[in-house]
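In response to a reviewer's request, we include the raw inputs and outputs for one of the modeled complexes. The two entities were modeled together in a single run.
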Amino acid sequence: MSNSRRTFLIQSVIACSGVIAPRLAFADWAEDHFAPGKLDRTLDRLYADATIVESDAIALKLPLIAEDGAVVPITVSSTLGNVESIAILVEKNPVPLAAIFNIAPETEPFVSAHLKMAETCDVIAVVKSGETLYSARQQVKVTIGGCGG
Amino acid sequence: MANTKIRIKRKDDTTELKILIAHPMEHGRNRDPETQELIPAHFIKTLTVRHNDKTVITARMAGSISKNPYFAFVLNDIEIGDLIRVDWTDNRGLTGSAEQILTDPS
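The model returned the following structure tokens for the whole complex.
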């Protein structure tokens, strides 16, 4: 896709939907965010190709080795300000996006959850702070996959 | 509903919220080990946390969250007597909820 066409499409979407609408739409469960596919494609669908910067201000608490991929505990916290959302993605799961949390301004940027992991891969947290996207990743070795039943 | 349990606990200036939901979280790609038939997808899609009448967390998820989901959050500005309520909806339209009032720990 050419750059100008992409820019035009993005501008069209913004023009059609107004300024408030995309934020509201973002809080709805979207089929394409949870579609099977590659991690990069999911990130593009979630954040419309915006740049994501790796950051030390995001702390991931994850096991290095998970004996059971069906239950992998994760805690994501951040010292970044104005955190609007925290997404948790599992690189090699058929559906990479595990969950995305929209967080009100007075709530701590802190979430704990239990993930399924199909195989050894990276777990990525993407934190939206103001208009900027930050990420942190860590590999988890899975000895028994949690998606195969 | 009995299938959604929450616990709120004061921790210094913040309040910790823990959520445990009894739910299969089937993503639709598993097969029944005996019949080899696909187990239909059945997973929670949205979960909201409200402080009194204000939504403080909205979560969207799918089948990559473990069976019987567990979540923990840290909330600010919760006073004794405030109500915390958790609601969820799954892909079949089933819903669950739980609520608790923060009580004085002393």
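As requested, we also summarize the result in words. The longest strand of chain B covers residues 4-11. Chain B is about 0% helix and 50% strand.
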